Each structure stands twice: as structure tokens, then as C-alpha cells.
């Protein structure tokens, strides 16, 4: 069975998985998914109805970018995505979590809270002092 990733071009979470697949040189069929008009097939795979979803070569289904990356990294350890000792790996995961949390704010429309400016979805990223380019797509 061919490894398959359900994704959208613009999804930063799917992009995270695509980068790890590419770094590990893992072949994968990419299935562009219309998340505004989700197919029965897609909803049958993803209980949360979100991309990315990975179907592995044995037909097992994994969803959520962090869990997919963790699965890939443990199954195909070279090159390693979460490197180093326990503390270094934790720092790496925290960086990933921070990026995901910031992106959650961009992807969702809930930008107006705690005084953040509604018209600027990148305001929280700017407040965190991170380069906007690394989040833009
Ligand atoms: N925590 C999830 C977030 C995935 C996510 O929010 N994906 C968006 C695209 S960027 C999606 O599929 N949204 C469809 C929807 O919410 O209906 C992950 O890391 O995979």
C-alpha cells in the first residue's frame, strides 16, 4: 500500500509533515483535500475533520501533525527530528508547540482577545518577537 498524506497546500500543519517526510526521504502520495467541502472518504479517516492525515503503508491512519511527526521520527529515526538528550528534545517540542499555538491563532478567526488587534492576525507572532516570514504561506 502506498503511504498517503491528505493535505492542503496552505496548511502549515500539513507543511510540517511534508518537511519531515522530505527530510527523511520517505515516498508519499499527496492527496489535496478540499477542507471546505470534506468528502466522506476524508471524514471517515479524520475524526476531527482536519488535515494533515497520514495513511501509512499498512493502512493505519494517523491524524494531528504533532502525532504524525512523532510517529515518523520514531519509526524512521534518521535524520532525527527531535534530537539530543531529554531536555534538548523537550525544548524542540516546546518550539513546535509554540509555533503550532501561534499558527492556531492565525488559522482561526479568534484574533480579538486580550487586546490583540482583530485586523492583524500576526499580532501575537509579532508580540512573541518571531519573524513573520517563518509563518507566512
Ligand atoms: N492540531 C492540528 C491542526 C490541524 C488544522 O487545524 N488543520 C486545518 C488546516 S490548516 C484544517 O484542516 N481545518 C479544517 C477545519 O477546521 O474544518 C494538527 O496539528 O494537525
* Distinct small molecules bound, one entry per kind: glutathione
Overall number of strands: 4
User: Any idea what the radius of gyration is?
Assistant: 16 Å
> What's the name of the CATH homologous superfamily of the largest domain?
Glutaredoxin
Give the count of helical stretches.
5
Helical content band: 40-55%
Instruction: Give the strand order of the largest sheet, numbering strands 1, 2, ... along the chain.
Output: 2-1-3-4
CATH topology of the largest domain: Glutaredoxin
Tell me what the CATH architecture of the largest domain is.
3-Layer(aba) Sandwich
* Biggest sheet descriptor: 4 strands, mixed
CATH class of the largest domain: Alpha Beta
Terminal residue distance: 31 Å
Please indicate the count of domains.
2
**Shape type:** globular
Task: Tell me, rounded to a whole number, the average pLDDT.
Answer: 85
The structure class reads alpha+beta
Weakly predicted, low-confidence segments:
114-119
Strand content: 5-15%
List SSEs in N-to-C order: EHEHEEHHH
Structure description:
This protein folds into two domains: 4-75, 3-Layer(aba) Sandwich (Glutaredoxin); 86-134, no CATH class. Helix 1 (12-23) links the parallel strand 1 (4-7) and strand 2 (29-32). Helix content is 41%, strand content 10%. The chain has a four-stranded mixed beta sheet with strand order 2-1-3-4, covered by helices on one side. By secondary structure, it is α+β, with helices and mostly antiparallel strands. The chain is globular, with a radius of gyration of 16 Å. The structure holds glutathione (GSH). Glutathione is lined by residues 11, 13, 35, 49-52, 64-66, 100, 107.
Amino acid at each position: 500500500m502506498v503511504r498517503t498524506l491528505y493535505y492542503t497546500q496552505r496548511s502549515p500543519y500539513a507543511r510540517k509533515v511534508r518537511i519531515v517526510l522530505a527530510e527523511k526521504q520517505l515516498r508519499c502520495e499527496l492527496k489535496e483535500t478540499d477542507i471546505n467541502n470534506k468528502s466522506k472518504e476524508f471524514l471517515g479517516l479524520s475524526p476531527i475533520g482536519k488535515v494533515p492525515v497520514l495513511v501509512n503503508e499498512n493502512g493505519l491512519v494517523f491524524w494531528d501533525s504533532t502525532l504524525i511527526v512523532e510517529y515518523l521520527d520514531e519509526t524512521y529515526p534518521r535524520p532525527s527530528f527531535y534530537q539530543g538528550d531529554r531536555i534538548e528534545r523537550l525544548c524542540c517540542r516546546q518550539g513546535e508547540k509554540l509555533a503550532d499555538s501561534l499558527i492556531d491563532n492565525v488559522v482561526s478567526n479568534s484574533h480579538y482577545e486580550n487586546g490583540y488587534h482583530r485586523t492583524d492576525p500576526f499580532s501575537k507572532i509579532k508580540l512573541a518577537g518571531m519573524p513573520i516570514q517563518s509563518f507566512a504561506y
